[in-house]
């Protein structure tokens, strides 16, 4: 079974959390029939996903924009009567 060194994966993602999210989403896609982007002898979708990340075929893209700062007065909670 091929193993992907974690230090190589961390160079691609810079965050263990992002790595887990990317790998799990890609593995799910592979399990549902998505084509592989790398040639590898592995049969497990997680191994394929990790190798794709290591080779730079899959990466994290943050589509969400940060929330806009509220303009005007700040709302604060009032103490009960």
Structure notes:
With 81 residues, the chain is mainly alpha-helical. It has a domain at 6-54. It has three helices and no strands. The N and C termini lie far apart (66 Å).
Can I get a quick summary?
The protein has 81 residues and is mostly helical. It contains 3 helices and no strands.
SSE blueprint and pairings:
Elements: H1 6-13, H2 16-31, H3 45-54
Task: Write a concise keyword list for the protein shown above.
about 80 residues; mainly alpha; 3 helices; about 0% strand
Query: What are the low-pLDDT stretches, counting only 5+ consecutive residues below 50?
Result: none
So how many helices? 3
What class do helices, strands and sheet pairing give?
mainly alpha
Average pLDDT metric: 80
Instruction: Give the overall form.
Output: globular
* SSE sequence, one letter per element: HHH
Give the termini separation: 66 Å
Beta strands, count: 0
Radius of gyration: 20 Å
How would you characterize the largest beta sheet? none
Strand content: under 5%
Helix-residue proportion: 40-55%
């Amino acid at each position: 079974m091929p193993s992907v060194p974690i230090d190589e994966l961390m160079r691609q993602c810079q965050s263990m959390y992002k790595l887990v999210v990317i790998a799990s989403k890609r593995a799910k896609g592979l399990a549902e029939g998505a084509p592989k982007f790398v040639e590898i002898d592995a049969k497990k979708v997680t191994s394929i996903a990790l190798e794709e990340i290591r080779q730079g075929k899959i990466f994290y893209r943050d589509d969400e924009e940060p929330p806009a700062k509220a303009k005007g007065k700040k709302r604060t909670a009032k103490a009960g009567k």
